[in-house]
Amino acid sequence: MFSGGLTACFWPIILVLCLSRNTNILPVAEAIWLTIPSSGTKCVSEEIQSNVVVLADYYVIDENNPDQIPTISARVTSPFGNNLHHNENATHGQFAFTTSESGNYIACFWKDGSHKQDSELTLGIDWKIGIAAKDWDSVAKKEKIEGVELVLRRLQGIVEAIRGNLVYLKDREADMREVSEITNARVAWFSIASLGVCIAVSVLQIWYLKRYFVKKKLI
Amino acid sequence: MEKIWGKTWALMGLLLLNSACNVSSLSVTVNDVECVYEYVIYEGDTITGNFVVVDHDIFWGADHPGIDFTVTSPGGNTVHSLKGTSGDKFEFKAPRNGMYKFCFHNPHSTPETVSFHIHIGHIPTEHDLAKDEHLNPINVKIAELREALESVTAEQKYLKARDTRHRHTNESTRKRVIGYAVGEYILLTLVSALQVIYIRHLFSKSVAYNRRTHREDPVDEFTRIMQLNIFILSSQGTSAVRPVVTGNVTKIYNILGCWSVTFGRGAVLSEGQGIYVPGFQE
């Protein structure tokens, strides 16, 4: 399905990418492509910790009619429900933000009502967080480094990001271990308490029934 | 000078190219089939990735069959496929360049959230080195180093997704423990209260069983009661003679060949032959 139409839509991709903020000269396909259903929304989400840079670009790909590209609407919500980015009737867009709280960040896309065709849209998303979102061109210009040194600086950035991820995973594992141990202790205590409740209730029963029968002159 | 500039541009180009094949780990909700497309530029590139089913209906989760994963090449062949798994890593070499399709299929009606990460890595080969004189072996080494670091990052993303799934299970267990324990206590108390109420009901006057036989000790009751009822049964099988009672008599009647006399304090019974059986207090 895509091999035939690919040559037709290849040049628009390059054009869009060249005109976008990244200004890559080489034809690069950085993004993943998703299909947006004709009705309903398509959402992608990611669980991100706080203080992380998120950079994303999205564009509609339609090889059938390049003159009239269908438009979509987009919305990005933070885990607390704040609206971080909202766009209507657009064929492409971008958003960038730094996360203030850790949680699930959701980006939703849906087809605009103006195009009532029953076809599915293809949307390309280029979603980068953390070290991948860093603008190395500006770093190269600012510090006047180039070539192998820039590459190695980049690799150092990646290594530092790996270490940061490791620390984060370790902290999360510690939290989860605590929850597990609390649950384990609770299971033990609640079982013993259940036995206690059983005994207490049966003693109450017997005491009440004895009092009742004595009152009714049965024993 | 020109050569250095050419090399640096080539390196930067290569750098950008390497950086281009990088996708963050996104989560998608799979209702039935969800497909993700990615374009592979060079033939022979290694495509690595992983996916984890993060948030599913954990009710009887232990025997959940998981989801299916298929990779389709631009030619339409299935390059890689995994069935019935709740998360796995994959790696394969792209047989040709073009648009690859990565599909998740959920055989069940409950929607599942899948977190996936796909990385396309390219290392320049000797053929590329020969073609482009600006590339030298250091680029190959840097590319290999880059790919190794990418594999560590990918592994970390996989661990993070699995940790998220584990966290959901833990939270669910914690809530279940508290819920079921409290529910159990309430149920126990309720059942025992019902038992007590039922036993009380069995001994109440409204139940017919209690009207006919009343096991009271007549000696204890005699001093307190106001009226006593006795049955006079015939000892010879015939109807007894009607007793004569003087004094405080409330009722006297014949029932099934027996005489039932209800009298108060101070009554005198005479001329009643038969077996005397204490009846009930009225």
UniProtKB/TrEMBL annotation, chain A:
Keyword RNA-binding: no
Membrane-traversing stretches: 187-209
Annotated compartments: Membrane
Keywords: Coiled coil, Membrane, Signal, Transmembrane, Transmembrane helix
Pfam families, sorted: EMP24_GP25L
Signal peptide: 1-20
Keyword ATP-binding among record annotations: no
Domain annotation GOLD: ranges: 41-131
Membrane topology category: Single-pass type I membrane protein
InterPro entries tied to this protein: Emp24-like, GOLD_dom
Family: Belongs to the EMP24/GP25L family.
Protein's name according to its UniProt entry: GOLD domain-containing protein
Organism: Hibiscus sabdariffa
